[in-house]
Write the structure tokens for this entry.
Amino acid sequence: MDWLWIIFALSAALIQAMRFMVQKQMAQAGLTATGATWARFLYSLPMIWLALWAMVSLRGMELPVLHSLFWPWALLGGASQILATVFTVMLFARRNFAVGVTLRKSEVLLTAAVGWALLGETPGWGGFAAMVVGMVAILMLSGTGGKLRLDAPSASLGLGAGLFFAFSGVGYRAATLQVASDDILLRPALALGCVVILQNLMMLAWLLARDRGEITRVFAAWRPGLAVGITSFGGSFCWFAAFALQSAAVVFAVGQVEVLFSLFIGARVFSERLARRELAGIALLIASVIALVAATA
């Protein structure tokens, strides 16, 4: 069972690349970054709870108890994921699909620091060395006009998304550890179901206060919304399952293969081409991920 988290992480990366493809298409169809973000939580909510109900009913089980610290960790993870996803959708408007996803992948360099600060989990010196290499790759991908500029808008959005995804991943790992169950499917499923309820409430309250018209537009975009919901459900469950079995930093490190998936999607779906510098940055970032996994194995 020690290798099962790797299967979950790889599956999550593939499904997530597909979800961001659909979310980019939704943004291009006229939804705001906030609306496209809410769509993933709204349309995945009934799917998650239907799957959870079937899992409990068919197996003759009961929902496990949630320990007292579950809700604070779930709130941290859920709110951070909302902000990270909004930043990511905004990033797609500035950079092409593959580079946008790669810039967001600064999460793996930040999650280890957040995990160490909040949970005391660390990848060791070899892992930190790999993170330094990864940061060089991020700098290569953040330039505009052939210059490396850390303060470029694309870099700010990408690093901001990565930081919030780092808090999200650590929050989710801590939340799954607060579910009183050893079942490798039920524990992440219940944690996910509760988090998505929180996220829908937070986003609905925001839209009611700031942009009520976007609520109507999200419901009108139900066809791509269903696709977002399906991929969000599958990807989120796999992430939660991986977090329940391994530290968030290492899970995100393996999840970096999403960059390869996004390259393929960007080329096939959006007809995008990458500059040599961007390809070199992606290759260097992937190398840093491999080194990080090797150091923490």
In short: The radius of gyration is 18 Å. The chain has one domain: 4-296.
